[in-house]
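User: Hi! I'm a student and our assignment asks us to look at how structure tokens line up with a sequence. Could you show me two examples?

Assistant: Happy to help. In each example below, the sequence comes first and the structure tokens follow. Example one:
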Amino acid sequence: MADRVPRRPLGGASGPLVVGIIPNQHPEVVMEARALSDALNRPIIFAYVEPNSYLVEWDLKSDIEYLSLHPQEIDEDISADVALILATLWRAMEGAALPWRFRVLAGDPAKALARLAREARASMIVVGTREPGVGPLLSEFLGGSTAAHLTEQQLLPVLVVPVVAIG
């Protein structure tokens, strides 16, 4: 077997953690990110990728690419999801020692999170697994999971927090 040359990490050595988050996110994901943030002394960028957004990054115009990753308009449905996520984050991150931010992204979740991580020179990406059940299983079968896409295509470390059904 040939010797492998270690690759240079693409993220910043002290870059933030990029954490993918969804409405009704299981608390384990946010709490694991917070604990990791404290342990590594890294700020957090929580990111929600709007699932009904469409991809426009195939057009190479820089203004179109920017709009795909950073949507300018937020409709009522997105606003409700954002309000729910922010309420969850404010509760979970109360008293956090390090700063955190929240971003709304558009496009394919794995690509949007990867792009944000590159932009922010992140040190790691954190996502949760899907809740067990028929709906998530079918969705994963049809499109694959964001966690799987990230772990297959990322050069940054990706932490996948296992989520178990509550109840």
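Example two works the same way, sequence first and then tokens:
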Amino acid sequence: MTKHFLEIPEGRQLNWLLESASDAMLITNIEGRIILANPPLLRMFGYLSEELLDNPIETLLPERVRHGHVGMRTDYFVRPSARAMGSGRELSGRHKNGTEFFVEVSLSPLQTEQGDTLVMATIQDITARKQAEKSLLESEARMRAIVDTAVDAIITIDETGIIERFNPAAQVLFGYIETDIKGRNISTLMPSPFREMHDGYLAKYLTTGEKKIIGIGREVVGLRKDGTVFPMDLSIAEMQIGKRRMFTGIVRDISERKLAEEKNTRLMQEISSANEELTSFAYVVSHDLKAPLRAIGSLADWLSTDYADKFDDEGREHMRLLISRVHRMGGLIDGILQYSRIGRIKETVVEVDLNRVVAEVIDLLAPPSSITVTVDALPKIKIEPTRIEQIFQNLISNAIKYMDKPDGKIHVGFSGADKDNWQFSVTDNGPGIEPRHFERIFQLFQTLAPRDRIESTGVGLALMKKSVEMYGGKVTLESTPGTGSIFSFTLRKHPKNQH
């Protein structure tokens, strides 16, 4: 080794340079035998210096390429020049332990004083770079698969607005195939006046950074190849690839959603109009009915008082029924008015002590001595006072009204609360209700007992249920015929749309 090296001009300097170089380097003669290998190269391939010197360069190559390399080495020495080895091909080195790794090789010819040609090879292990490239390719393949199979249209443009990617969903949405639209300005997909405004907007953003859509998303209008215009949701993301700025837009056709929104708007307007008409109708009808009804009631009361001695038993019973039905009619009219107003009038919510409310309801209803009413300790809740009083009054009065046991028991219970709801119940040991009637009893004007036997308008439970639901609560019923019923209801702690 020393003999060959010393014959190279300035050999000591070259020896020092190779020994101190951080890159792996070696020198071979025209026969392809290694005459010098520096420490980084020895570490890269796992050899000692004496194991490599005077061995063919093919020792450092995989066995499958050694034979072919001999021919290429011979060709190189015909016209030696400084160049990269294996341009356009992947080169591999072989470690002493047999493992292979990717390398890049640069060749530089050297001339001895005797005129012999040597070659210096600089070798770089590019395994990490190849792995990164492979990972990048795999990532790009996965991304392409995602983009190509995405339901939404995905379009990529450069900073001048030129389309570079146009996924299959975009082709279906806009009616262009990718080869037709690629290379054209994105404004092609916009109707006037947005088309004329786009380039100026993009230029202004690149200059000032002022953005109206990027990273925000908004509803815009798109233009198909056939000239039809459609509404769409557009969101744009910016990315930096090297020194290039790219923009990716995700587009979704919202034509059906817009039609649905317009339909819903029309329906809401119709419902609002119908509700207003219904409220006006209920008010007018009740007002017009109450005046003659009061007159009938007054006349009936006058007849039954002034002509009491003229009526026989049958006549007195007929007058009693007449007066009773006039009062019932008045109750029905009031019930219709109350029912129509629930949920239409904003109610003032204040803190209410339910212990006081329920006590006042029981005192007002004055249950007979045969019925015992017990009450749990109740909380203070925020609600409209009259509304919660009506809820408890309707439930307790029903329990009293329909009680059929000589020892009646009614219990107003508080079954606790979770983070969202209060939970209450009214339990009785009355006649109970058959399951087939559970839904019916919450409908307007529905009663299970004959009205001439038990005075009822059939409005109370319907009012109670609608009131509870207006506050976001729920009513449930458990009942066993002959044993009794449990009416339970929840009230949201923070009802929506209440002031």
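Here is something you could point out in your write-up. Residues 2-125 form a domain with the Beta-Lactamase fold (CATH 3.30.450.20).
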